[in-house]
Amino acid sequence: MQVEHQEEQGRFVIRVEGEEAELAYTLPERGIMDIQHTFVPEAARGHGLAEVLAQAAFDYAREKKLKVVPTCPFVRTWLGTHPDAMPLVDKRYAKLIAARK
User: Can you give the pTM of this predicted structure?
Assistant: First the structure.
């Protein structure tokens, strides 16, 4: 499964049967990546595409030394099972994620 990073559009994409699964983000301030939403077409759900997109986004954040604001509800849930990604979460939001466990 290949993830395409469309940096100018602020999204990571996986093409599936003529449709796109995507994770969209913005860079609202220097050093911050706000992951806003994830979408997987209904026919492609249940195959781990959203997880792959989330991992790609966090890998990018790590590479670029960005802190993540997890606006997307899926990503907040995903963080609960990926503690290795928590150091990348902006400290203003990390406590909120920890409180949800």
Answer: 0.91
